[in-house]
Amino acid sequence: MKSHNAPITKVGVILRPSSPELKTTFLQIKEELNNAGIEVILESISGGMIELLGRDFHQLATQCDALFSLGGDGTLISMLRRAFEYELPCMGINTGRLGFLTALMPQNLHTFTSHLKSGDYTLQKHLVLQARIYSTLNTAYEDNLDNKNQTPAQTLIAINEFLISKHELSGMVHIDASIDRKYFNTYRCDGLIIGTPAGSTAYNISAGGSVIYPYCRNILLTPIAPHFHRV
Fold it and tell me: Do the Cβ atoms of 85 and 74 come closer than 8 Å?
C-alpha cells in the first residue's frame, strides 16, 4: 500500500562536521535532487566547511520541506535533536562507518528522488525521550511531579539515550526507578542508561543491553557495571 505525503520540493542538507571531503558528494547529491526538481539549501556551518554559501539552521528548518544529513548515524542524530521542535521529516544519507539509521547510500539516491517529489514515501516515527530536571533544594521530587505550575530547571530531548552517572571515580550511584510513579527497581551501579530502540545499538549495546528493532515503543533501562539490582 502506497503512502501519500506532502510533496518535497525543498531540502535542507547538513554535513558531518570536520569533513571537507564531503564537498564532492554533496555537489553530486545536489545535482541529483535539482534534476528531479527539488531545491537544495546547505546549512551555514556545513557551507563554511566546504566554502559554499549556506543558511542558518532556523532558516533551513522553517523554509524547507525536509532535512537530509550527509554522514553517519551521529550526524543524523545530531540533526534530529536540532530539528525536533520543527517536526520536519528527516533522512540520513550514509557516508560514515556506522549506518544503522542512515541506510541510504549516495549512489542509491536516484531511486528515491521521484518519490520525494510526488509524495509517494513513508514516514516512520521513532520514539524520543524527554527529561525534565527539577531543583530539589527546596521542594521534594514528588511535589514537583504533582505541581503542574512547577517549572523544570532544564528540559532535554534524547534520540539515543539519557545517562545518569556518578561524579566521582570511586563509589556508585543509587537509583530508584519508577514507572508511572510505581516503584520498579533499585540500581547500584556506575550509571544507568535510559535508552530508545534507535539507541539500542549505541552505548546501550556496549553496556550489555538488548538490541531492539528501531520502530518499537520500548524504553531500555541498562545499568552500567551494576553491583546489585533486583527486579
Answer: no
What is the β-pairing status of strands 66-71 and 90-94?
parallel
Same structural domain, 31 and 106? yes
173 found inside a domain: yes
* Domain with 186 in it: 129-226
CATH code for the domain of 73: 3.40.50.10330
Same domain, 110 and 143: no
Q: What is the pLDDT of residue 139?
A: 53
Pairing of strands 220-224, 228-230: unpaired
- Do residues 112 and 26 both lie within one domain? yes
- Which tens digits make up the pLDDT trace of 174-215? 999 999 989 999 999 999 999 999 999 889 999 999 999 888
3-class secondary-structure state, position 177: strand
Q: Which residues pair with 169 in a beta bridge?
A: none
Kindly report the number of other CB atoms within 10 A of residue 220's CB atom. Answer: 19
pLDDT 10s digits, 61-116: 999 999 999 999 889 999 999 999 999 999 999 997 767 788 789 999 988 898 99
The CA radius of gyration of the chain, in Å to the nearest whole number, is 21
Domain count, the chain: 2
Q: What are the catalytic residues? A: 73
Q: How many CA atoms lie within 13 A of 43 on its CB side?
A: 20
